[in-house]
Specification:
Strand content of chain B: 25-35%
Largest interface: A-B, 89 and 83 residues
Radius of gyration of chain B: 22 Å
Oligomer: heterodimer
Number of strands of chain A: 16
Number of helices of chain A: 8
Strand order of the largest sheet of chain B: 11-10-9-12-8-1-6-7-13
CATH class of the largest domain in chain B: Alpha Beta
Order of helices and strands of chain B: EEEEEHEHEHEHEEEEHEHEEH
Shape of chain A: elongated
CATH topology of the largest domain in chain B: Rossmann fold
Number of domains of chain A: 2
Structural class of chain A: alpha/beta
CATH superfamily of the largest domain in chain B: HUPs
Number of domains of chain B: 2
Strand order of the largest sheet of chain A: 5-9-4-1-2-3-10
Structural class of chain B: alpha/beta
CATH topology of the largest domain in chain A: Rossmann fold
Helix content of chain A: 25-40%
Distance between the termini of chain B: 59 Å
CATH class of the largest domain in chain A: Alpha Beta
Order of helices and strands of chain A: EHEHEHEHEEEEEEEEHEHEHEEH
Largest sheet of chain A: 7 strands, parallel
Shape of chain B: globular
Number of helices of chain B: 7
Strand content of chain A: 25-35%
Radius of gyration of chain A: 21 Å
CATH architecture of the largest domain in chain A: 3-Layer(aba) Sandwich
CATH architecture of the largest domain in chain B: 3-Layer(aba) Sandwich
Number of strands of chain B: 15
Largest sheet of chain B: 9 strands, mixed
Helix content of chain B: 25-40%
Chain lengths: ~325, ~270
Amino acid sequence: MANVAVCVLGSLGYDRAAQGAAGAGRALAESVGGELHALVIGPAEDDAVAALATVADRVVVGANEALRDYQPEQALQAAQQLHAAGGGDYGAVLLSNDTYSQEIAPRLAHRLGGSSMADAAAIRMDGDHLLAQRTAYGGKAISIYRLKKQPAVVWLRARGFEPAPEQPSAGEVASVDLALDEPRIRITGREMAEQEGVRLEDAQIIVSGGRGLGGPEPFRELKKLADSIGAEQGASRAACDAGWVPPNWQVGQTGKKVAPELYIAIAISGASQHLLGMGDSKVVAAINTDADAPIFKHCSFGIVEDYKAVVPLLTEKLQAIAR
Amino acid sequence: MKLLVCLKQILDPDVPARDFQIDPAARAARRGGANLVTNIFCENAVETALQFREAAGGDVKITALCYGESSAEDCLRKAMAMTVDEACLVERDGNTNPDAAAVGRVLAAAIRRLEQDGGAFDAVLVGRESGDWGVGQTGGVLAEELGRPALGFVESLQPGNGSVTLRRQTDVGIEVAEAEPPFLVTVTNNEDNVPRIPKTRDVMMSYRKPLQKLSLGDLELDSEEIRAGSSIFEVEEIFIPADEVECELAEGDTLEERVDQLAKRIHEVVVSIG
């Protein structure tokens, strides 16, 4: 293998996920003595391109105006052409874990005659093959996959990787004009979910509630706790499916994969599918009535107690400490 | 219109972690006492297709397709009991853990065969990922094998004027798209596409509906080439992670003391973040 490419969407900029993907890419490139290239799908802010140039040896931007608003077929065409424009000799093409990257990855791999893999938490080269570690069976197992064809096109659990280090000299930046067809599936509207505060994926502290809360009202009590320590709020699938909180609060296998410094799980038993979404948290604390709940096998500290008794008192104490 | 839904039979993902075991030689989960079930996102896809047919007011034919062992006939019968019109099983011979490339190639060949006989499918629906390996690559691979445009994480299809309106979930909200057939979607779950429980009468009827069986030979595919030649990935290793952390439970004689200890621990972490 020669070089490594990190493929980012211009509209998302050089966010924490892209930084992690670039960090993973740099480590992989160094391990094989290759360069790290950044392939940017669509126009990006100048500072995002500049930031990419500080960490990559080469940045290729597909700056067609048509790519400003994401359309899957065109983004895919763009990724394929950027791959060629960057030199094409990539052993690996890495993407972040946003929805768009997730849907592009397997199709891009197929078009490039490579192998694809999803949600990798660790990657390394073994000869010509990339090995990717990820969870399997809803978080009950860890599997390591051997990707047998090149390039290995992998979307990563990107925030779990250290950001790419700055290089001594900035990489060259090239802008290319791409040939794009009219798409036969066209995204015509977006209804963005209300976003208070930062995105869950970027949160430093998360207070999450689960089935044991029994209804929507207790989430208001949890909000006070969250506010006292500057936390965002999340939830388990059970709480979202029940309609107690919006679907975009969901942390888990089919929800968000978060990696905060502190994750407080309240009335969440800790099904493997939930653990899969928050397993990368640095410190986990749990409040649950059931001492045998699996969450207590996955937390640093906790309390076996009814949240109703704990949360108001805890909030009061944290508010007092803050003062 | 014609819709096709792809199904996968998997080990029941709700097996508790304490009963879950790995077969090291097979590099896969041991079945143990677990049931085989239809992957939930595939059932969401069936439900999404049925709701499209209801919204379109008839004249929509739905076919279910599965590449699996003979036991997967149960998944197809259940889909027909949910009122899917017909089904096709491509029998898997010995390839116990086919990768996404293998599955994509087999499904594409089966779809082309079914289309020769009965006309093109306007939409192909695939679950977003499976509850066993959960790699989530089959939909994308299949779209490329068929050369059709695709959209991921779709939660509903609505009939439009010559096109189909899709709603899908992204990490920043809902997106609405217009799709010109033929196309492919991967389906995710929401509160509206929870799979229906089949009625007793429909369960009986499902045994009268046509279930076609095809072998890889019928599709002019070479099973060894599918198994090894075109494979893009394989499981190198699989293990059950050790419970890594020891939980320190708040101690104290009174609730007040215990919560106080918890508050101090939380505060320590919050301060360290800065």
